C-alpha cells in the first residue's frame, strides 16, 4: 500500500510539473463560468416546528446564544443570549476546565418592541482578560435550566500564526441554509467572517418579523455559541417598515448582535476592526454614509494607518455589496463605494475583500480601476499587483434563491463564477501564504469546487518583486485524481477546480 501511495504521489508531482510547463508555453485566457446546474431544494424557510429551531427545555432557559470578539486583539469575547420569559441572571460563569467555573462576569440586559412584537430579554456580557490559545467553558442561566458551552481563544498575535476562518454570507433559514451551516461546522475553521443578511426576517410582516429573528438565533446557535462570528450588516438587516411605524434602521439587528466597535475608535457598531491571530480584519457598512468626511470615511482612513503588517500581515476587508460583480443581480451597486475606497485598498495592499449580497459565487483576479474617471484614464479594470482579490460569497442558502444570470461574455477580471450555494474557508499558513476554498453545497454534499493559494500582498510580493503580467491560465483535466489544475501567471498561485459539470 505504501508503494502504491508513493507512486501516486510521484505521478501527481510529474503531472503538476507538466501542467506548469504547458502554462508557460501556451497561455490561454481562461476565466471560468461553471456550467454546473444545481437541482432545486425547497426555497422556503424551514417550518417553525422543525427541530432546527428547537427551544431549550425548561422555564426561561437561555437561547439564541452567540459570541463575537469583544476587543481589538482577541483577548475578550462578548457572549449574548436571550431569556424568553423574564430577565433572569446576566452573569457568565467561566473557567478553563469543564464544570469548574472559577470566574464570573456581569453583563447587561434589555428588551425592545417591534410593531406589536416584544422581544425576550437580551443579554450581552463582555468576558475579558482571557489567555490566548485557551479553551474556556462557560455557563449561563440558573438552576436546572442553566446551559453550558465552550469556546477557544485565538493564538497570540504573531505574523506567522496559522489560523482558519470560515466565510458565510446571506444565510437565511432554509434547508439550503442548514446544509451550508452543517458543512461549515465540519470544516475545522475557528471563526466566521459573516458578510451580512442574517435571518431574512424582513421578508415577513407584522409579528412574524420578530419571531423569525428568534428562530434564526436558535438555528445558528450550534455554531455561534462555540466560536465567534464576526458580524457585518446587510440590506436585510435594515428592517424599514413605514406601514408598521418602524423606521429606525437596523433596530432588530443592533439590539441582538453587538460588535467591539469602541475598541477600534469607531463611532458605530456597523463599521469596526479587529485583529485575530495574524489577520487585521476591517468590517465596512455598505448602507451607511461613506463619502468624504463622513464618520465611516474618516474612521477607515485612520484605521488603515493603524495596520501593522509586521504583526498582522493579512489585511482582510468585509462588506456586504461587492465592488466587482459580473452577475445581473445587483450589478454595479458597489460602484459608489469602489469610487471612494478602492484607491485606499490598493495603496494599503489589501489581500482580499469578501462580500455577499449576490446569491452566487465569484472570484476575481487582482485588478483595479483606480485610473478611471469620466473624462480620461482606463475605462476598464486592469491587472494590478497591489490590488485585492475580490470574492463574493453571497450563497449561504436563503429563500430568495440563486442569482444564476451571469453577464456574457465573462469579464476579463472574473476568474471563476458559479450559481450555487456554499461557504468558503481561508486557512492562513504563515505570513506569506494562505489556502482558500469555496465549497459547493451539491444537494447536501460538500464539494471543494474552487481553491487557490493566496499570496500575501505585503510579504510575498515584496519578496518576489515580479512584474505583473496579464493573468493567463492553462488547464488540463486530470481524470485519475479528479481535479483541474490551473496555473495563473501573476500574483496568485495554483488554482484547483473539481472535475464536476
Automatic annotation (TrEMBL):
Keyword Aminoacyl-tRNA synthetase found: no
Domain Purple acid phosphatase N-terminal: 62-153
Cofactor(s) required, per the database record: Fe cation; Zn(2+)
E.C. numbers: 3.1.3.2
SUPFAM superfamilies per the UniProt record, alphabetical: Metallo-dependent phosphatases, Purple acid phosphatase, N-terminal domain
Keyword Iron among record annotations: yes
Enzyme class: hydrolase
Domain Purple acid phosphatase C-terminal: 387-445
Signal peptide: 1-30
The reaction(s) this protein catalyses: a phosphate monoester + H2O = an alcohol + phosphate
Calcineurin-like phosphoesterase domain: residues covered: 164-361
Name under which the protein is recorded: Purple acid phosphatase
Native organism: Cannabis sativa
Source species taxonomy: Eukaryota, Viridiplantae, Streptophyta, Embryophyta, Tracheophyta
